[in-house]
Amino acid sequence: MAILDLAFVTKTLVEVVKRAIAASPAAPAQAVKVTSLPPDMLSEDNSIGLYLYHFVEEAAHKNQPWRGRPDKPIRFSPMGLNLHYVVSAHSEAQDNEGPYREQLLMGLTAKALHDYPIIDDDTTVGGVKVVPTGMLGDENKIRIALRHVAPNEAVSYWTAGSKPLRLSSYYEVSVVLLEPEEPTQASGRVLTYAIDTFVGGLPRLLGSRSRVTFTIPGETSARAIDVQPAQPAIGDAFTLIGSGLGGGSIELLVRGPNAPDARPVGASWGVSAFGDEVSAAVQDDIDGAPSVPGTYAASLRMTRTTALANGGTHTDVVLSNETPFQIVPAVTSVGAPDAAGVFLVTGKIFQDPALNASSVRASIGATALVQGTFGALATGEFAVSSPTVIQMRLPTGGASGQSLPVRVVIEGCESPPAWVVVP
Is 120 in contact with 143 (CB distance < 8 Å)? Predict the structure, then answer.
């Protein structure tokens, strides 16, 4: 079905023309030689050249997996080529006889390629099979078509050379399949088969959502807003929204700063499904690694078991797409500042080997704090002392009794709203 030596195609065309001219009653009395030489190298009397000067990839076969090899890399599939030939004739006869002879040879060649537009293993010309032995048995089939080249374009083929313009015709041969590599491994034989029904469709995630609850100083009722994508802190719940999320057991996988590969979060996250929503609560660790603040990708691995017609069961394990969410720093309490304006912010996780210390930022009100030394902070500085404690010192300018928002940002993820009261 494919070849590697393009010369087989050229030899086939040469044989077709040679046998057709030999069997034609209009053939000249002189012997005719059919070659694969380019026009400028034809020097023998009564010679015809079929020269392969160009080829291009066939668009319809581009990067198509070969039948029987759908899961193999592209190098195991054949490459479809369209071959372009220039045909010319040459005669050493004197005076007008030379061009007349060349025109006769060109006419005989055009008729031969017209009469045999499709060539396969069984094609015979003058009672002789024209396909080379190396191509036989692979069901190769080549198609020959005369290209309609405009006269001004035909002239351009010759203007760059040193030879004068010569009568020529141009043919396209398609589709020639270039032989691919042979697979060294094969899949096992299929001994049984069945038609299974996959109930519920494939799982697909459309987004994530979480709720942030806070109480603004001076108000007695808490406010709550939903954010998308989800921005839960450790201990907060969040929801994955999608379709096809029912009908089997569900496992939540996350990938992020401390989990470069998607890994299951574990039973402590309390993953549960209801309709097309899956809920969970962020815990201190992800499969043994701390749940550090950052941007994560969540996906679902679903296992569904269905009953077969033969009384058995079949288990499918499918993986959904990923959807983003953030784990933000948790601020559980903001201490009262002392006389110097120093206070502690407790929460998690503020410090971890997976976190870049320079990525931790803090601000009070509109003032961005500068990292300092724990226990010796200057005005408007902060220091991370442990994974659960940050020490801050108020900046100047706050009025006594004023509530200023406290913000902790790690890896671009901001903690839920919290406030400190200026003493």
Answer: no
| For residue 365, pLDDT beyond 80 | yes
Strands 47-57 and 33-35 turn out to be parallel
What is the distance, to the nearest Å, from the Cα of residue 72 to the centroid of all Cα atoms in its chain? 15
Domain limits at 228?
204-327
Model pLDDT, residue 1? 52
Residues 301, 414 within the same domain: no
Bridge partners, residue 86, by sequence: 51, 170
Task: Give the span between the Cα atoms of 25 and 30, in whole angstroms.
Answer: 13
pLDDT number for residue 313: 82
| Residue whose token pair is 């009653």 | 25
- Is the domain of 254 the same as that of 348? no
Angle between helix 7-23 and helix 97-115 axes, rounded to 10 deg: 110
Q: What angle do CA 219, 225, 231 make, to 5 degrees?
A: 120
Higher-pLDDT residue of 193 and 164 is 164
Query: What digits encode the pLDDT tens for the residues 168-223?
Result: 999 999 888 877 766 555 556 665 655 555 555 678 999 999 999 999 998 999 99
- Of the three residues 284, 301, 327, the one that is the final residue of a domain is 327
Contact indicator for 339, 275 with CB cutoff of 8 Å: no
Q: Quote the CA–CA distance of 117 and 131 in Å, as a whole number.
A: 14
The phi, psi pair for 7, rounded to 5°, reads -65, -25
**Same domain? 164 vs 117:** yes
Sort residue 301 into left (φ over 0), alpha (ψ -120 to 50) or beta.
beta
User: For position 368, which CATH number holds?
Assistant: 2.60.40
pTM of the model: 0.53
For Cα atoms 55, 60, 63, give the angle at the middle one, nearest 5 degrees: 85
Looking at this protein, which amino acid is placed at residue 199?
Answer: V
- Given 144, 178, 212, which residue is the final one in a domain? 178
Q: Which residue has the tokens 């009568």?
A: 167
pLDDT at res. 259: 77
Structural domains of the chain, count: 3
Exposure of 95 by Cβ count < 10 A (0-12 exposed, 13-18 middle, 19+ buried)?
A: exposed
Please name the residue that has the structure tokens 């994974």.
387
